[in-house]
Amino acid sequence: MASKKREVQLQTVINNQSLWDEMLQNKGLTVIDVYQAWCGPCRAMQPLFRKLKNELNEDEILHFAVAEADNIVTLQPFRDKCEPVFLFSVNGKIIEKIQGANAPLVNKKVINLIDEERKIAAGEMARPQYPEIPLVDSDSEVSEESPCESVQELYSIAIIKPDAVISKKVLEIKRKITKAGFIIEAEHKTVLTEEQVVNFYSRIADQRDFEEFVSFMTSGLSYILVVSQGSKHNPPSEETEPQTDTEPNERSEDQPEVEAQVTPGMMKNKQDSLQEYLERQHLAQLCDIEEDAANVAKFMDAFFPDFKKMKSMKLEKTLALLRPNLFHERKDDVLRIIKDEDFKILEQRQVVLSEKEAQALCKEYENEDYFNKLIENMTSGPSLALVLLRDNGLQYWKQLLGPRTVEEAIEYFPESLCAQFAMDSLPVNQLYGSDSLETAEREIQHFFPLQSTLGLIKPHATSEQREQILKIVKEAGFDLTQVKKMFLTPEQTEKIYPKVTGKDFYKDLLEMLSVGPSMVMILTKWNAVAEWRRLMGPTDPEEAKLLSPDSIRAQFGISKLKNIVHGASNAYEAKEVVNRLFEDPEEN
Predict the structure, then answer these.
(1) Which architecture, in CATH terms, is 154-229+276-312?
(2) Mean pLDDT throughout 499-511?
(3) DSSP one-letter code for 147
């Protein structure tokens, strides 16, 4: 019978325990790239392995493999780890482990071990008695029960209502939920439609004030949370958050007796009830909980259709930067590779770095002779800064980049971006990537500082149009910081339209805005004022259809007056209007 193994280039694929056990029968050295299903093998090391395979020419005693940790019991300690791990097996015994894509170290280790195998085969030396290294970290004992054998996770839906969002209670509610041992698995901010409210709250549809409730629930922003019960080894306890403001660990005198009388099944229900917990915290009026499996499924299908896929992914942002020479000469080639590698470009801008900024980004080269020349180059013209998003994005981008110097890249990582885009001007990588998630967050905030602007959807927009506009807003990368429906008074209108109060059409504007509620929004992203104005399009919908056919006004506008949306003209106006309409518009 043919072996279940299959060769992908030079590495054997090991994706279950039986194939792992079979691989350990290999004679000689096997170099194993241990990877996670969500990020894949370390492609940056493959050129080195191919080079070693060709140069050493020892097919009988040198083997390469990739092993998927998710499906192999032996590799359980390596699950959910971002950093590449390489194991060295000699005649079935794991004798060495190297963490990280350290090409020189791996290269040296392979050459030394193969040299030993040659000498042993020639009778020139006895086989060293290497101790088999433990795969379990000393500080992270592996549970006897495999995660895949644990009980199926149960989910609840929490709906943080519009009044809680407006009163800035969102962070408090989320903190209390997580502090009690629950896990917020996913989050979605939205303005619920009437159809959604009627559907999701059908069980109370016969109540007398249901229409008023529907109006309230569609009046502003809600947060939809998917909440799980947390680890069964650390369940959320009833007393984690007392009713009074006492310390979290403080217990009342009769609690031990109460716990002793509860059966295991009763204890599980008591501890796992998110509804009861929020009632004890006096937050139930601000946050509805849905725990019925069928209704939870409806919410998941509506707001989290890709939940299972997203839960298995680790979406990360990183800052990428093309140095001036590369940006000037080969920008399109780099952007094409970024797209082909499934990165999403969230933001991009040209930036001429200050000397201080250049020194911060080039800190790893500060002891090199060419450091001053590098800083001069970095400040000589525009660089291209990008915010990239991808599953395991930070580590994946670092692997694509390769090493810090061209010399090392050409020798060990000829397929890396460093080698591909090497330039004569400097011996360094022409691309940059953040070295940690903390650094990425800090650098993104520096180069792409957030800005808020006012967005207004006018009263004549239908509910379907409002829903479509909000979808366009989100797809454009805006964060809905605050949203509320308002019947605008003349005083409020004057604050929103300060430049047109004396115009002939101002009375018509007041009349148009008074026919129903407007949806007033705080929209947040980098360069928000300009981006929102671009997304709206020209004031006249007819002109918008010609000049910006994908804009909101081109798609939904009727006339200059009923052009569906409005926005602040500049950053100062945006800040003034937002502060007046929302008083203290802190983000939840």
Answers:
(1) 2-Layer Sandwich (3.30)
(2) 89
(3) G
Determine the Cα–Cα distance for residues 394 and 391; give it in Å rounded to an integer. 9
- Cα gap 271→235, rounded to integer Å: 7
pTM value is 0.73
Q: Which residues pair with 98 in a beta bridge?
A: 86
- State yes or no: is 566 an active-site residue: yes
pLDDT bin (cut points 50, 70, 90) of residue 9 is: low
For the chain, give the mean pLDDT. Answer: 85
Rounded Cα distance between 8 and 40, Å, is 13
User: In terms of pLDDT, which residue wins out, 492 or 36?
Assistant: 492
Residues marked as binding? 458, 505, 533, 539, 553, 563
Question: Is domain 12-122 in CATH 3.40.30.10, yes or no?
Answer: yes
Residue 246 and residue 240 in contact, taking contact as beta carbons nearer than 8 Å: no
pLDDT level of residue 103 (50, 70, 90 thresholds): confident
Pick the CATH number of 315-447 from 3.20.20.30, 3.30.70.141, 3.90.1150.10, 3.40.50.10380: 3.30.70.141
Is the separation of the CB atoms in 225 and 174 below 8 Å? yes
User: For residues 197 and 514, is the Cβ–Cβ distance under 8 A?
Assistant: no
How far is it, in rounded angstroms, from Cα 127 to Cα 227?
A: 55
Which of these ranges, 143-157, 384-398, 522-536, 546-560, has the smallest mean pLDDT? 143-157
- Specify whether 63 is catalytic: no
Annotated binding site for ATP: 458, 505, 533, 539, 553, 563
d(CA 38, CA 69): 11
DSSP state of 70: G
Neighbouring CB atoms inside 10 A of 414's CB total 15
Name the catalytic one among 188, 446, 460, 566.
Answer: 566
Q: Which one of the listed residues 63, 188, 233, 282 is annotated catalytic?
A: 282
pLDDT at 267 over 50: no
The three state secondary structure string of 445-500 is HHHCCEEEEEEEECCCCCHHHHHHHHHHHHHCCCEEEEEEEECCCHHHHHHHCCCC
Nearest to 478 by CA among 385, 351, 346, 576: 346
Contact predicate 541/563, CB 8 Å: yes
